[in-house]
Design goal:
single chain, alpha+beta, Beta-Lactamase, 5-stranded antiparallel beta sheet, 35% helix, 24% strand
Length: 136
Amino acid sequence: MNCAILIVLIFSKAAYFIDNPDFNCCKGVAGCCAQERYNNAGDAWKKPEPFSKHMESASFNKKVRQINDVSNSHKLDEMVKNFSTQLDIKNPEYYSWDLKNDNKGILIFEKNPENYEEVKSHLPQGLSLLGFCPIF
């Protein structure tokens, strides 16, 4: 789950979902928060097993992965508000993008006004890394 490294270094709290309207399902894939940050993030690419074990035990990541809701992509703002409430994400912002097979990727994160414009400008280029997240 090395994709979570990207998320945890940029956001204080973030959750990644895949929405599949064909199967009427929106699934939580990965979540990170600053309080559960992996201390050896620089080693995570070289030694992914300890990082994966850390993420498996992280309570926020578990909460995100337990979310398995009906697809509601035509009411994305409503879905984001609901998930943000469940995950206690303050000042939520989201980014949605197209994935293969008519799926949608959704990244919900705590908006930090100090780095928001910079994050917003670079976010689309980095989202492809989330494709490495395993879906359980």
